[in-house]
Amino acid sequence: MIFFTSDQHWGHKAVIWMSNRPFENVHEMNLYMIEKWNEVVGEDDEVYFLGDFMFKMSPNTFVQNVLSKLNGKIYLIPGNHDKRYLKKYMDRVEWAEKYHELYYTHEEKEYRFILFHNPIYSWDGMWRGSIHLHGHTHRNTHDLYFESIGHKLNVNCEFFDYKPISIVEVINMFKDKKIIKK
Q: Above 50 in pLDDT, residue 146?
């Protein structure tokens, strides 16, 4: 199975109050997010992480400790906070690319996904059904829980109880028009 997520900001104390996360401290947040990740992701699953794994901190041992506890194969689309820590992730991630196009067939229909950390105003295939997945914007800085302009979805972990969302869930959200505006 393929999953998507972004913006965990492991170890980032300020993100708790900045994004109104329901945690008392960083340790509680980290443990909860690891538990939620592993609740849905199996060892052989693939996770496309759309950026902002950490933020301005973390010795290599902390990064490796968190990564070693996460199930699945991780593909990284680096976010704005990942650049200075990218080398720390590379032992555990399959690859890191700034932009990626993913093709997936579900129920005999091929879907094209455009993966980038930031929301893109206009992307290749936008008017032909391609789906743009991104992170970067948090619950506190955006008035839509799910961005639904065209076929665009914010996969920030805050919108999905800190769990990665499966590719089939994403497809079904658009197919069933279950994109929710708030």
A: no
- Domain count of the fold of the chain: 1
Alpha helices in 41-161 (DSSP H): 60-68, 86-89
CB 52, CB 79: distance < 8 Å: yes
Q: Tell me the pLDDT tens digit for each residue of 29-45.
A: 999 999 999 999 999 99
Please, how many CA atoms are within 13 Å of residue 94, restricted to the half-sphere of its CB? 11
* DSSP symbol at 179: -
2-5 and 165-166 strand pairing: antiparallel
Domain that holds residue 83: 2-175
* Domain harbouring 135, CATH code: 3.60.21.10
pLDDT band at 169 (very low <50, low <70, confident <90, very high): very high
pTM for this predicted structure:
0.88
